[in-house]
């Protein structure tokens, strides 16, 4: 297998006027330096001038042919210029031989692997200090997901507006499920093993982790061979775990395939498809569509600062969904091992670049020691697991304008495990006990993060929450009131339908509003994904004497249509019919009754104390619906008197929500 030197990247990560961070994965150990160039237009064309910088590269060896580098670039004389187009190049040195990006045809115009846009000589970006600067956001991108991948549509936008910094997006937020570790296509199974063996080499001995795995070894590397292993030895709840990723090398291989065309060029599917041949062929067709666009995805990631946070599928479906799930899964050696492998891969491929200073040397050395030796059962192995499972700083602030607070909605949860009294004759009205998405410890950490940042109380803040604070009420209410109660008859609806919206647990929902009120966030923009539909919601909230304006925009999925043409149309119709009855926003009151959070009657005749009131309005798309279930990528621009939210459906189609008008 011919392994190229650059496996994935460069990916532009955290960027501000003091530092530029670039991520790169190579198959060989190389020394890396960087060059930054200012770009000015003149009558003769573009002038490129080298900007004085120094670069420091941190490298972690993840396998025999996998080195991940984080290149931190600093200005040596003055800060990087803002609102100005900048270019960059990387120089890789090995055995006294020097390569740059052009050595790999990455700067060659019209080459299929080129990272540059028409008329430019380098990948480019700019540092914005204007709140009007557009941003891209989205989530849920499964390689064999249904429909056309929406992420490559960003390539068209960047190409079209490459010189116009008023319209060119300045940041990309990837809000979870960048990979689907629990749902792997059948044709990829043998290829992932090939990549793992070639690039990672000797991997962990899983029978040392869980001796009972010995009886399943015949199935471990077979297509569709893992569902029983995952259910029996891990207590995972994914119903699509036939090919679930287990080893670190498998997670790493999936990331490399998600962001780069390099290894797809070597993909030759095994046509041994004795089971479900129709499923195999269908998945293979979706994979071909996916890999055809990875060159565009790679170019996007090289030309825009990108910030990433996990959701469940980056690790496993339903990750930390309930206290029962945690007890069942973390009580197994193999389940805990897989979660830690997923977190190690998330850190190396996603988390490290968000806010590099968060990860101190001891953290990095712990990760390095694990992937070098896989010391299962030893003290370093225990330290590796303890380090990952106790780590509480996956959240971060992206240095955008306005600042963007990116929430960890998976590992900072709290759970109410007190028993519930079930009244069968009134089952439909039972209070639902779902997770508190961020617990008190999490809000304390976020308070401190804001305090340590440049953000000032009362300023605009953008928040990235993988799970929307405000979903579409018609959908959430139906699931909560009509579907969730079936759990009391033994149905596992919580795992099958992901009952973990913010509003399903009003304790957590109130904590979010209280956080906004405490910091005087009178205008807050929330970017979200997760729910497999797109929407745009405005909530006017009154809480503790504060009037809050919350703009919730949601984009999901990038590539994983969950509702086919018929069900998608039905959902849109039902939502539209319900919202047509509401020409004006309907006010709602919330408080505590009999010690439990609940929605109160608007008449307030029982004198129950109101904790907050809200009015919700939904923005419509051109075709009249307030939701979109096609694959999409959000494009948000904060204009002078309006907030415009657009959905990129593919390279040829865009849908526009009615703008949010500011009073």
UniProtKB/TrEMBL annotation:
InterPro entries named among the record's database cross-references: Metallo-depent_PP-like (IPR029052), PhoD-like_MPP (IPR018946), PhoD-like_sf (IPR038607)
Protein name: PhoD-like phosphatase metallophosphatase domain-containing protein
SUPFAM superfamilies: Metallo-dependent phosphatases
Pfam families: PhoD (PF09423)
Domain PhoD-like phosphatase metallophosphatase residue range list: 289-540
Annotated organism of origin: Metabacillus halosaccharovorans
């Amino acid at each position: 297998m011919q392994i190229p030197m650059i496996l994935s990247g460069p990916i532009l990560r955290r960027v501000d006027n003091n530092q530029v961070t670039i991520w790169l994965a190579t198959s060989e150990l190389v020394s890396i330096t960087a060059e930054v160039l200012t770009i000015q237009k003149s009558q003769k064309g573009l002038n490129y001038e080298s900007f004085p910088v120094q670069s420091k590269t941190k490298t972690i060896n993840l396998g025999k042919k996998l080195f991940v580098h984080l290149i931190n670039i600093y200005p040596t004389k003055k800060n990087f210029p803002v609102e100005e187009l900048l270019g960059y190049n990387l120089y890789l040195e090995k055995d006294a031989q020097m390569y740059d990006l052009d050595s790999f045809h990455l700067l060659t115009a019209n080459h299929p692997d080129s990272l540059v846009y028409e008329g430019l000589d380098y990948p480019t970006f700019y540092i914005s200090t204007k709140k009007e600067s557009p941003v891209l956001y989205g989530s849920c991108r499964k390689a064999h997901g249904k429909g056309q991948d929406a992420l490559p549509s960003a390539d068209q936008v960047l190409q079209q507006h490459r010189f116009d910094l008023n319209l060119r997006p300045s940041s990309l937020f990837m809000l979870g499920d960048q990979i689907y570790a629990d749902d792997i296509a059948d044709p990829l199974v043998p290829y992932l093993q090939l990549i793992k063996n070639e690039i990672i080499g000797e991997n962990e001995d899983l029978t040392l982790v869980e001796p009972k795995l010995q009886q399943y070894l015949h199935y471990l590397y077979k297509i569709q061979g893992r569902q029983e292993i995952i259910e029996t030895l891990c207590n995972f709840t994914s119903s699509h775990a036939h090919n679930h990723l287990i080893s670190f090398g498998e997670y790493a291989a999936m990331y490399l395939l998600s962001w780069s065309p390099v290894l797809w060029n070597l993909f030759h599917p095994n046509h041994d498809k004795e089971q479900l041949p129709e499923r195999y062929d269908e998945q293979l067709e979706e994979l071909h569509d996916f890999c055809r666009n990875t060159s565009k995805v790679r170019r996007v990631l090289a030309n825009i600062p990108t910030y990433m946070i996990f959701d469940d599928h980056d690790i496993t479906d339903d990750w930390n969904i309930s206290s029962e799930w945690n007890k069942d899964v973390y009580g197994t050696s193999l389940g805990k091992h897989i979660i830690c492998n997923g977190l190690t891969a998330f850190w190396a491929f996603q988390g490290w670049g968000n806010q590099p200073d968060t990860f101190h040397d001891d953290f990095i050395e712990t990760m390095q020691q694990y992937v070098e030796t896989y010391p299962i059962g030893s003290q370093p192995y225990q330290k590796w697991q303890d380090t990952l499972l106790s780590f509480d700083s996956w959240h971060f602030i992206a240095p955008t304008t306005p600042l963007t607070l990116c929430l960890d909605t998976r590992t900072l949860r709290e759970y109410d495990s007190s028993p519930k009294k079930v009244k069968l004759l009134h089952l439909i009205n039972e209070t639902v006990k779902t997770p508190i998405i961020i617990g008190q410890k999490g809000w304390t950490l976020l308070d401190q993060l804001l305090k340590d940042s440049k953000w000032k109380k009362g300023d605009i803040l953008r928040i990235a929450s993988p799970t929307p604070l405000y979903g579409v009420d018609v959908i959430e209410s139906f699931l909560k009131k009509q579907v969730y109660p079936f759990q009391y008859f033994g149905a596992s609806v919580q795992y099958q339908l992901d009952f973990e919206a913010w509003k399903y647990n009003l304790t957590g929902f109130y904590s979010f509003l209280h956080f906004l009120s405490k910091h005087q966030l009178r205008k807050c923009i929330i970017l979200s994904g997760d729910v497999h539909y797109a929407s745009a919601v405005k909530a006017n909230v009154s809480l503790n004497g504060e009037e809050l304006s919350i703009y919730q925009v949601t984009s999901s999925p990038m590539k994983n249509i969950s509702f086919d043409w018929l069900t998608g149309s039905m959902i849109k119709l039902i939502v539209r019919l319900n919202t047509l009855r509401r020409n004006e926003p309907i006010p709602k009151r919330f408080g505590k009754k009999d010690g439990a959070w609940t929605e109160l009657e608007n008449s307030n005749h029982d004198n129950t104390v109101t904790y907050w009131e809200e009015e919700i309005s939904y923005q419509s798309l051109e075709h009249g619906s307030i939701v979109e279930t096609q694959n999409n990528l959000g494009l948000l621009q904060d204009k002078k008197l309006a907030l415009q939210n657009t959905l990129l459906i593919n390279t040829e189609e865009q849908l526009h929500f009615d703008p949010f008008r500011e009073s």
